[in-house]
Amino acid sequence: MARGDRLIRAAPDATEFITFSALLISETGPTQQTLTAAEATPSACLHRPAAERARHGRKAASAAGAVSYVLGYLVVYVTQSGRVEEGLSGINVFADLFGGDTISVWRGVGWVFYNAHFVDVDVPSLVGAARSVNFISQRDGGFAYLYVVPPLLLVVAGVAIARAAGARTPADGTQSGALAATGYFPLAVIGAFLFRYAVGDGGSVALTLVTAALLAGLVYPAVFGAVGGAAAGATAE
């Protein structure tokens, strides 16, 4: 079975995981006890007052957005770390030879993860300006399924958020699901700096910061989270 097919078929499990994680985190505070699995279910949330549901929905939004980001990175790491390590081996030989720091696999995986959001990596050139690179688009079509990873996880996050907020209509679900950006955006910005690799005199291999923040951090979670939220609201009982 193709990796893309396995990823899509795993969506129901991911929905349950993100939903439960978001609800559990939203229900836990400094002065609160952790709820049981039965108390943290979406159906239990629907019976709370509207103001309380909204408050828990906002907490769930941040949690679900953050969980989606982390899961997305892990999916790319598990499926691509071997290829990334192989691709970096030649570069690291020269870096080691000239006393430079080698590029870690986790950092290279981060570049690919952002490439899946259509965020390019700026690579300095020995002659002329830096060039923008998307490692996924430069490989054969077998890696195109990576473009599905962030949207799929964010749609699932939108479903989880809408359920936690008790959304009963597509409009309410859309508003709730879009809040996935509140958890996704901070990590997207942090990652853009974390995955930077310094080379030479002040140069660096780095993600395009504006695109990483606006496209990966805001547009992706807001749009796809809203889609998931709308679906959850439309199917709410």
UniProtKB/TrEMBL annotation:
This is Transporter permease. The chain crosses the membrane at residues 60-79, 144-165, 177-199, 205-232. Coiled coil: none annotated. InterPro entries: DUF7978. Pfam families: DUF7978. It comes from Halorubrum coriense DSM 10284. Residues 59-234 form the DUF7978 domain. Keywords: Membrane, Transmembrane, Transmembrane helix.
